[in-house]
Automatic annotation (TrEMBL):
Residues 51-308 form the PET hydrolase/cutinase-like domain. GO terms for cellular component: extracellular region; periplasmic space. It is found in: Periplasm; Secreted. Its EC number is 3.1.1.101, 3.1.1.74. This is Poly(ethylene terephthalate) hydrolase. Transmembrane segments: none annotated. Belongs to the AB hydrolase superfamily. Its main location: periplasm. It comes from Nonomuraea phyllanthi. Keywords: Disulfide bond, Hydrolase, Periplasm, Secreted, Serine esterase. It comes from the Bacteria. The keyword Protein transport does not apply. InterPro entries: AB_hydrolase_fold, FrsA_esterase, PET_hydrolase/cutinase-like. GO terms for molecular function: cutinase activity.
Amino acid sequence: MASVSSHPSTSREQDDVQLFTPRTGARTLTKLALTAALIAGGLATASPAHAAGFERGPAPTDALLEAARGPFTVATTSVSSLVLGFGGGTIYYPTDTSQGTFGAIAISPGYTARWSSLSWLGPRIASHGFVVIGIETNTLYDQPSSRGRQLLAALDYLVEDSSLTVRSRIDSSRLAVAGHSMGGGGTLEAADDRPSLQAAVPIAPWNTDKTWPGVQVPTMIIGGENDSIAPVATHSQLFYESIPSSSEKAYLELNGASHFFPQTTNTTMAKSMVAWLKRFVDDDTRYEQFLCPPPSGLAIEEYRHTCPSS
């Protein structure tokens, strides 16, 4: 990847993008070449959203959601640490310009961790039709409240920064947050602070605040049965129970999982997470079948839910 100039007046994206395709892996294109491809593909004539929500991609199946990549080819671009409000990161986005704009998700790593600890999630989620920004935090030791503010700052950057090439691909009304550990605690903070968000996914969340009666954002909490750092009995379950039943919510507990289950590829987590984001960020009711009736299997210890309302 090309390096980013440290001069404040320069663009804060890197000059190259990395393309991930479902079959061929990664290859690098310059922005100039990518821009030409977008023009040839008719970016200016992107089709409007479907009448029933914002359907993106083919009808979902178990096989599609359990695959390492979804139906969209994904490109990446880096964000410099010179941005305001968070510590930079990586953006993943679909290269398809024929289906209109996409919802966007900001994801935070946990305490002392970098985005690289969760980076498998970037292309995985983006390949289902989302723009994903995996953030670096201002410091490795930022607490949940700070991580929540940084998640919101990253979303604001995506939709407001005029220097960002991918900005035109994003529907600013369809935004979501997610994060691991203190990043999961920050996800709850962000959802509480900004009720206009469309979805939140705290993963093995840690927070000293155990009650979230003000959260209105559809929230899926994913915990690990054997988590000894943020035990589900004193974290994930309490968070879930405190969110009012008038809000859409779900609690997925993974059988035998430790606190660090999101740091390696986890198909059960990814499948439920994508289904939740598709249902609430895209308002795509085709994905309700993966949420209600509740999913089951050897990988799932427990699942609680309110069942999405169509």
